[in-house]
Amino acid sequence: MYAWQLHASLPKNTHPTGEKVWEEVLKWEKVELPPLSPGYARVRLLASALNRRDLWIGLGLYPGIRYPAILGSDGCGEVVEVNAPSAQQWIGQKVILNPSLYWGDDERVQSERYEILGMPSRGTFAEYVDVPVENLHLVPSHLTEVEAAAVPLAGLTAYRATFVQGGLKAGEKVFIPGIGGGVALWALQLAVAAGAEVWVASSSESKIATAVQLGAAGGILYTQEGWVQTLLEKAGHFHLIVDGIGGEVFPSYLHLIAPGGRIVVYGATRGNPPMIDLRRLFWKQAHIIGSTMGSPKDFAALLAFIEKTKLRPHVETILPLQAFPAALMQLWTGSQMGKIVLEHSQR
Ligand SMILES: NC(=O)c1ccc[n+]([C@@H]2O[C@H](COP(=O)([O-])OP(=O)(O)OC[C@H]3O[C@@H](n4cnc5c(N)ncnc54)[C@H](OP(=O)(O)O)[C@@H]3O)[C@@H](O)[C@H]2O)c1
Q1: Best of 183, 188, 231 for a ligand 1 pocket test (most atoms within 8 Å of beta carbon)
Q2: pLDDT, tens digit, for every residue of 70-122?
């Protein structure tokens, strides 16, 4: 098969602002397909989508990178082969792939063997991908192949952070900072569909406007002086904050959270917070909760929720698979809001 194969990360301090910078390290090339392992299915990919993780690996800023690597955690395709006698019914089915591999039996936390699809295992920026049979799911009936590819990693992370770890209920008030992020946008759509009142923060007026179109009650520019006070005046305190930002923004959550509220952390784009006001934390009886990806049960629940609410992911850009380096560049600029999806044309 042919695949985009990463042979090394970009040299340090290279800004991926031109497609040419990827030429030396990222190649569209022929890769041997090994015999299918027992318990696995082979999927011919119809569409895949990017996540920030793909860029971090390309830049060498991700733990445990192994080369050569075929990246890509999100995919939708058609099952062409199954090496499991009891699962032959999957052959010919259109599927969406759960990118959480080897979660294990404990709903509370992933196993030590846990991996995300697409490095070290071969990922979805390729003609074919092999996944364990239990990671296959039918595509929600109202979604196109492109929309289905936009669901897995960000949708799963947002679902667990918002509902499983965050325990969101209809009528609660939620704050989601950095709404330009893929997970944040999914959290917004899921929380709105669940009947919550959602407020967002962004560096961009137009991203706030898009969030409002998608059902947010309102938003605030976090670049604006005094934004925390302004947000409190507009919205009041929040029952739940779903955060992938961290850094210098994090201490403000202890002002914004309601007594007894929950702050769920799934990322730290801005690094660790400079300091946390522990007195405010314990006086408010607030909870800080970690969340990562999701279990097989979470993925099935996400798909059932999407099916029931007929939710559609916000896809901003559709490119051919051949344009993967250009898509990485677009992700780097941070100008997009919503998923970048790659269409695979080999049919
Ligand atoms: N734990 C997991 O399972 C998991 C899964 C996926 C991602 N993650 C992590 O979660 C984080 C977000 O990932 P992502 O791919 O969804 O988003 P992303 O594409 O990394 O976007 C991050 C967003 O953060 C916002 N931001 C940056 N600086 C900010 C600041 N000072 N204050 C408020 N917002 C700020 C920006 O929003 P605006 O454009 O709106 O300004 C930006 O679009 C990353 O750190 C990622 O590694 C974790």
Answers
A1: 183
A2: 999 999 999 999 999 999 999 999 999 999 999 999 999 999 999 999 999 99
17 shares its domain with 145? yes
Residues near 80 by Cβ (< 8 Å), separated by ≥ 6? 42, 43, 44, 91, 128
Strand spans (E) along 73-225: 74-82, 94-97, 100-101, 115-116, 128-132, 136-138, 173-177, 197-202, 218-221
pTM of the predicted structure, to 2 decimals: 0.97
| In contact, 241 and 257? CB cutoff 8 Å | yes
The CATH number assigned to the domain holding 44 equals 3.90.180.10
In this structure, the residues whose C-beta lies within 6 A of any atom of ligand 1 are 51-52, 154, 157, 177-184, 201-204, 207, 222, 244-245, 249, 266-270, 292-293, 334
Are 63 and 121 members of one domain?
yes
Same domain as 232, residue 128? no
Give the angle subtended at the CA of 268 by the CAs of 217 and 236, to the nearest 5°.
Answer: 30
